[in-house]
Fold:
Amino acid sequence: MAGDQYLPFLDFLQKELLLFASLSFLIGSVDDLMFDGLWLFHRMKRRLFVYSRYERVTVEKLADPSPGCRMAIFVPAWQEAAVIGAMLRRCLQQWAGNEYRIYVGCYPNDSDTVAAVAAAAAGDSKIRLVMCQHDGPTTKADCLNHLWDALCRDEIEENRNYAAIILHDAEDIVHPEALRLFRHLIGRAALVQLPVIPRRAKGSRWVAGHYGDEFAELHGKQMVLREALGASIPSAGVGCAFARESLQKLAARTRGKPFDARSLTEDYELGLHLTGGESRGIFARLRDRNGQLVATQEFFPDKLEDAIRQKSRWMAGISLSGWDRLGWKNSWRENWMRLRDRKASFAAIIVAIAYVAVILMGILAFADLIGMYRPRPVSGFLEILLILNLGFLLWRLAMKFYFVFSLYGLREAFLSIPRTVVANLINIMAVWRALSQYIGQLTGQPARWEKTSHFYPDAKDVQQLRPQASTGGRG
Structure:
């Protein structure tokens, strides 16, 4: 009796959910296919008309227009005692001979991090400890504004300006030639962004591993085409250099605070603000003499809770708050890119609906197996949608496989296929948390720096982190 009452409704619900999800997937897949087609055209054009005519340049061959110009590196730190010391010591080692200063922002109530920074500096003038005025955590943007204030005071006292401000996190593994590349390009753009290469701890094949899958495609295809189309370049928050003059102009319009402390994704928004007008942004994919990308590597969260927390912040800041804070522009290229940025939260909801439909399909199949209920067949229209979406899904997995293989090798490329399910589950859980954060912002709750645990490898293990990659030039 219970089956007679509820199973027909579940059958109807399953078909409706499947139809809605299939139509939504089709729209998103057509968008992705158009983007992929443009990227393939761009790549083919570069191979035919650029790479075939000119020798590919490595970073060591770049002319250094201003070898003596100073770079300021901003590193906001809250409860980073476990990693900040090793990161700073590696920077000093890798960037020996360069003109730079690392500004590390700490909080009065975080004595362990302060002690770790002081120990790593050991009287070295290249590391400057900056104490925030308030106990932490505030927001990363608030910490960055304290570093900006300290830099401006130093410039006045020393009567010498910096050429660029570079953002890094306390767990970043820097490339020895990164500063050379920044010096070469910063005079041509308001923002220079290097690729970010996620690494994973050995015990987190699925949670941490899915970041590598996503960034391989994001920084191997999406950012490349975004620059080629002339759209604004969002900052990844690490491995990015802002022209000093561009930040100064922005600070003049924001009462001396270039980083918006009300934003959960201040780095993303800052990049769009600085490169959305006449100023340009550059996404720099260049290799060194060993064929390795000049990139920023770091270990991303390896625990499920940390991954959900981090991704919910990205979704709340980019997909949800971005609609209110950044709006839209009078450019189809710009609006297309912003729409692609903002559809992540909605895609996660659609995937959740599709998973519910699959679960209901399993229940109905079991009811059919035991003779309790025979589900209605799907309509011809829905069958066509399912076939089309299956083809699009195979294409998406093939693209992911290619980019992961190009960066990490064959084993990780095969793992990226089942990791798609893990990524979907993380995004589904993150979107509900993001909605809660967004509603909290609308009701006036202040933004706060949500801490995720970080890991930094031993010095002897860093060289083993370099990804497999073929030699090649920019793009």
Observations:
- The mean pLDDT is 89.
